[in-house]
Amino acid sequence: MKIVYITNARLPTEKAHGVQIVKMTEAFSSLNNDVTIISPKRVQREISHKTDIFNFYNVQENFKHILVNFIDPYVYRSFMPKFIYRFFSFIVNIFWGIKSARVGSKLKGDLYLFRDNTPFSYLFSAIRSKKCVVEFHDIPPFVARLIFKIGLIFSKKTICFAVTSKLSDDLRKKLGNLKNLNDIYTLHDGVDLKKFSNKENKKNDPPLLTYCGSLSKSKGIDLIINTAKLVNNVNFVIIGGLNPELKHYQKLAKNNGVNNINFIGQVNYSDVPNLLNQSDVLVLPSSSDNIKSEKYTSAMKLFEYLSIGKPIIASDISSNTEILKNNENCLLFKPDDPESFAEQIRLLVQNKKLQEKISSNSSKLASMYSWEERSKIVIEKIKNI
Q1: SS3 call for 1
Q2: Cis peptide before 12 (omega within 30 of 0)
Q3: Phi and psi for 66 in degrees, rounded to 5?
Q4: How far is the first Cα of the chain from the last one, in angstroms, to the nearest whole number?
Q5: Against a cut of 0.85, is the pTM above it?
Q6: Could you tell me how far CA 235 lies from the centroid of its own chain?
Q7: CA dist., res. 262 & res. 257, Å (int)
Q8: What digits encode the pLDDT tens for the residues 269-315?
Q9: What is the DSSP string of 190-216?
Q10: Which domains does the chain have, with CATH numbers?
Q11: CA 113: distance to chain centroid?
């Protein structure tokens, strides 16, 4: 099958969506499909990003990547008032939709893939009667939803997926009863089981707890700092974050007298498995104050943690508990509550049998969520349209 993945993302990017796009493309290709990514050529602000996606993400060169010369609205962001920049970006997105659909059409694909941030690319492909898959990672804004709805009215060959069941439910309500929309299937994110495997059984003294991902309050970084004050017999490592966020949280930790957190900053994605393997416990402290974190995020780090096979401590929110079960493959704590988080840390680091039980169950669960299995589900659903 000839598959074309059209995205509006900057590739490569330090953001998780870039990893997800590239790993899904690699997985589709590994199933003997001819796959091409189409993305706009964007300014790369980080030196580490000035390479091709194969080197940056350490993936097989089993697919093609077409970089299309196009306007990068971000370049003009600092020169424009906010409302003008938003309008300018909107116009650019329309023209990217036209351009990308035209480039994609020339490839004569059997299947076209889109995420929720490319409504115009989807629309201009759908009206050409292309067989399409749209993957939702959030509720699109009103105008983007309207564009998707128009595309779905025209298209009888579209399958929609959402990365959590809560997101699937809410999207059905937002999109309404459309004749050509049979359902929105839930399809959680995945993991590379070979790269994220348990290769280190060394125990640290004091125990080492690791978080990997972007840095924000919704991701629970403020909570980690507040919790670290309560459990000074463990060390924390925080991997990820661009310089502005990194400096903010380093300063916040210092001002709170916290000295048992090591902020590593951004690393190459290929280095992440080794860093996770050096840990004793992996933490997923997402906040319940942010609806996207609570209900709509299928965190790739969750599946990477499971595959590594280290004990996991996570916040008790629906996006986590769709996958995780307390006292079986993780310990859950009350979200946004440093006392509850600290209590579960103390319980886990003092109980070796519990650590072994959670680790064993985590590895077993991870096997259900490989990128290859995820790709097979998409292809199987497409056969029905």
Answers
A1: coil
A2: yes
A3: -100, 115
A4: 15
A5: yes
A6: 26
A7: 13
A8: 889 999 999 999 999 999 999 888 899 999 999 999 999 999 999 99
A9: -B-TTTS-----PPPSS-EEEEES--S
A10: 2-189+370-382 (3.40.50.2000), 208-369 (3.40.50.2000)
A11: 16
